[in-house]
Every structure is written in C-alpha cells, then in structure tokens.
Amino acid sequence: MPSSNPSQTQNSPPQTDTQQPKPHQNSTQNDPVLDENQQKTELLVEEEEESECGFCLFMKAGGCRDQFIEWEKCVEEGEKNQEDIVDKCHSVTKALKDCMEANPDHYGPILQAEKAVEEEAVREVEKEMENVESVATIEVEEITSSSGSEQKVAS
C-alpha cells in the first residue's frame, strides 16, 4: 500500500539529517584566514561585476579573460598618459584578437559583428573612391573640352 505522505514515493531513498560534505570543500575549510580572504575576494568580484559594462562582463566570461584585462589596462594607461592607444596597445590587441579567434564558441558573435563593420567601411571607402574618380573624370573632360574650344577660337 502506498505511503499516505504525498511527498514520498515508493522509490525515493530514505532521507537523513546527515549533511554530506560539498565537493568543493577541502581540508582548509576551517581556516578562518583563508575563509575571510575568500569572502573578501568574492565581494570584490561582485562589486567589480556590478560596476562593469555588459560587454566587459561578456569578454571576461570567456577564455580570453586575461588578454582582455591586459588590453583594458593598456587602454586605460594610454588614455591617462594621452598616448596613441593604437600604437601603444598593438601587441595586446593582437593577442586578444588571436585569443578570440581561437575561442569562436564564445566570441563568435563579436568577431562577426567586427567583420561586418570592416566590410561596411570598405564598401564606404570604395564608394567614395568611385565618386572621386567620377568627379576627376568630369573635371578632366571639362578641362580638355574647354582647352579644345580655346584652340578653335584662337585659330
């Protein structure tokens, strides 16, 4: 006959009040200094996460956390010292991009967006070049035709 308690089923194991140790706990769990340091670290991480932008959190959540942090530091230092960030941070930017390309599962959407922006910029430059060429061609034709008219008038 089934149990009258609906929360228990026939196949459920008997419940005990004994707590099982958590897998992440180790022999240092009773060390108050380590516990206090861990709590401080967790608080700092939480505060940092609360104050960071979504993009930064996304970048740090993937496999390129360290490269992104180095890139951030370089940019902040360059801005603070009014340096050319492109020149100053070239190597850390390359390291970050290489890492992102090696981790497309996480960073793929950002890489795709960056590629789309680059392609659009190339199209815009090509369009501008076509406009410049058209204007230059028209100006050359005008100069050529006006100099031909002057020669006819002079003769």
Automatic annotation (TrEMBL):
Matches recorded under Pfam families: GCK
Domain GCK positions: 51-125
Recorded superkingdom: Eukaryota
Region: Disordered, residue numbers: 1-46
Biased composition (Low complexity): 1-21
Bias (Polar residues) ranges: 22-31
Cited PANTHER family: F26F24.3-RELATED, F7A19.14 PROTEIN-RELATED
UniProt name for this protein: GCK domain-containing protein
Species per Swiss-Prot/TrEMBL record: Lithospermum erythrorhizon (Purple gromwell)
